[in-house]
């Protein structure tokens, strides 16, 4: 395992995924990746197959989009409904919460520390359940195509990662692909404006509050600013920084996968704060990130995966469809 694992960032393994893609060390990569998911719920993959040019180009489009005047961005408004996740959300529109379902409690949390981020979400173009919401083409020519192309680029990476994950779980390589055939995925462009560090630390504002993701896996690209933190698995309540690693894709497991794996894989709580070493009296730099949320097919029945339960470790969860589960969790965020 030594040479596919290139090191770690605060305990999160950095893995050379190229050795899976070229077939040289498939099982070693799969094992190392699974171990990192079990230990921390996160992994860094380098040589992940998405070219740096494509990544850079998507960040450039994201900057162009968010630089548009507010009234133009509002031509593609994210619906207020909690079940249609497409289009533009202005700063403060979304407040991520963790397992809070009481509406009075939710209102209190939202009022307290709004998430000062803005986002644009898109999916596959033929999704009739959550149709895309685009700007008029002439507002930012080429943007729509860029999002759609990048969506499918990430889809390819997802398939490879799911193959490795299945191998790590000692399942046939294609096992998880069958549950991810509908491509109910979501590409999200995120911009975190600069905010005073002190306000972040006093929790008067949040960038993205502590939460876990809902789906099976999330592919996350971040710029070089930093600020992403994950809860320390060995020390709940404290956070470790998941610093940017050049050229790496972060992959984290979501709640669906944790449940599916009978909690052998962690869905780790994470948040975005000030990057380490920001001056106390200063403001954070703005930050861009691009998560790609992968969901199991909404119709897929999520029952504990073979090998994750036994007589000593019985199934902890009832079977549920991925759709029921994800939509239930998503609806809490708006
Ligand atoms: O911006 C980031 O690095 C994290 C974003 C995130 O956790 C999310 O959108 O669920
Ligand atoms: Fe997240």
UniProtKB/TrEMBL annotation:
The keyword S-adenosyl-L-methionine does not apply. GO terms for molecular function: dioxygenase activity; metal ion binding. It holds the Pfam family 2OG-FeII_Oxy. Keywords: Dioxygenase, Iron, Metal-binding, Oxidoreductase. The keyword Protease does not apply. It comes from the Eukaryota. PROSITE patterns: FE2OG_OXY. Gene3D superfamilies: B-lactam Antibiotic, Isopenicillin N Synthase, Chain. Residues 183-296 form the Fe2OG dioxygenase domain. SUPFAM superfamilies: Clavaminate synthase-like. InterPro entries: DIOX_N, IPNS-like_FE2OG_OXY, IPNS-like_sf, Iron_ascorbate_oxido_reductase, Oxoglu/Fe-dep_dioxygenase_dom. Belongs to the iron/ascorbate-dependent oxidoreductase family. This is Thymine dioxygenase. The lineage of its organism: Eukaryota, Fungi, Dikarya, Basidiomycota, Agaricomycotina.
